[in-house]
């Protein structure tokens, strides 16, 4: 019935203002289905983390486009610190309605930064079985962060750890640090 | 100065965009895993069914809707649930003459924002999870129904329409050895 019709292109629609909200229950249940689905298809904790991170990455890539177009007047960040502050502030606010709790730099390795979130949204309803205490569903959010950094030109690896709540360990490629130093010099 | 959208910081709510994109990544993952669109439709329905079974508890506790005496009551409650959980108000209509079928019509579909169906996925029922949710929730209140999509904005229709058909009332099974 509808296959012959000309479908309107998504680009014909105006960009949403980002004010829509859905119930937390709806989100929690959807996320838990996703975790279960992923869980059924993997054999180890590591694989589960990777699966969730992959799911998060497809969210992250789209958030970059959305936020830089809507909130940042099409201007991307080039400095390392600024992109981290973007993740901690703008990104976190539009996803979770608040800023992330803390941003830290590792003392022994200049490539590593820590983003600390005491109680990530996705972990609020997940009870981790005792014998698998290393599982952290915030791997999904780690995937979001990783995709945001990668698609803005700051290749990094992001892992979620249990530490002061949940900590996202962000490890940048050497090239990023080198470039950042060059930018400093100007 | 970034134009931050001022969302009401209600702890019981999450950003609609996070929800939309999360759902989108799930559908994309299913398409990768199954390769066959019909299987994806089925899997989404099954996941929705699981969600519906749990969602009904929350709905009964929160909205205190009382009992449904006929299908019209049920339709009203479904409408109410859409409002509560997805923040949209569907309209109910197209009753069959027998009063055992109706349509839930969505002007806007919160799941389908930012979504465009590629040409090889035209038979994908993108929001099929909703049909599953309705079925799962009704089953927990002893209504067996069928729910399926008959129109979808993603496929060029004007509205998104879910058809709900009453099948039968489920009776409490008597535990074995108690009769």
UniProtKB/TrEMBL annotation, chain A:
Part of the multisubunit TRAPP (transport protein particle) complex. This is Trafficking protein particle complex subunit 5. The keyword Transport applies. It is found in: Endoplasmic reticulum; Golgi apparatus, cis-Golgi network. SUPFAM superfamilies: Ligand-binding domain in the NO signalling and Golgi transport. Keywords: Endoplasmic reticulum, ER-Golgi transport, Golgi apparatus, Transport. Its main location: endoplasmic reticulum. The keyword Metal-binding does not apply. PANTHER family: 41-2 PROTEIN ANTIGEN-RELATED (PTHR20902), TRAFFICKING PROTEIN PARTICLE COMPLEX SUBUNIT 5 (PTHR20902:SF0). GO terms for cellular component: endoplasmic reticulum; TRAPPI protein complex; TRAPPII protein complex; TRAPPIII protein complex.
């Amino acid at each position: 019935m509808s296959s012959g019709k000309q479908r309107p292109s998504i680009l014909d629609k105006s960009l949403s203002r980002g004010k829509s909200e859905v119930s937390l229950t709806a989100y929690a249940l959807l996320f838990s289905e996703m975790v279960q689905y992923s869980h059924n298809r993997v054999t180890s904790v590591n694989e589960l983390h990777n699966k969730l991170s992959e799911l998060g990455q497809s969210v992250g890539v789209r958030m970059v486009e959305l936020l830089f177009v809507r909130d940042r007047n099409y201007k991307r960040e080039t400095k390392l610190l600024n992109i981290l502050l973007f993740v901690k502030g703008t990104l976190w606010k539009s996803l979770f309605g608040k800023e992330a709790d803390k941003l830290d730099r590792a003392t022994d390795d200049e490539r590593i930064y820590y983003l600390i979130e005491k109680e990530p949204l996705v972990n609020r309803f997940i009870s981790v079985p005792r014998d698998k205490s290393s599982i952290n569903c915030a791997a999904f959010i780690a995937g979001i962060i990783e995709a945001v950094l990668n698609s803005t030109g700051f290749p990094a690896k992001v892992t979620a750890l249990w530490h002061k709540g949940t900590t996202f360990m962000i490890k940048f490629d050497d090239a990023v640090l080198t470039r950042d130093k060059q930018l400093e010099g100007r | 100065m970034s134009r931050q959208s001022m969302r009401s910081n209600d702890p019981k709510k999450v950003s609609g965009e996070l929800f939309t994109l999360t759902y989108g990544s799930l559908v994309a993952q299913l398409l990768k895993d199954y390769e066959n669109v019909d299987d994806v439709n089925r899997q989404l329905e099954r996941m929705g069914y699981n969600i519906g079974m749990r969602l009904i508890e929350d709905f009964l506790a929160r909205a205190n809707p009382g009992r449904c005496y006929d299908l019209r009551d049920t339709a009203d409650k479904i409408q109410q649930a859409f409002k509560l959980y997805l923040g949209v108000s569907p309209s109910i209509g197209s009753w069959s003459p027998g009063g055992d079928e109706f349509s839930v019509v969505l002007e806007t579909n919160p799941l389908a924002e930012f979504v465009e169906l590629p040409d090889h996925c035209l038979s994908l029922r993108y929001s099929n999870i909703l049909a599953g949710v309705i079925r799962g929730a009704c089953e927990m209140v002893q209504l067996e129904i069928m729910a399926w999509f008959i129109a979808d904005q993603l496929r060029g229709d004007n509205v998104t329409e879910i058809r709900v058909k009453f099948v039968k009332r489920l009776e409490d099974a008597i535990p074995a050895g108690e009769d």
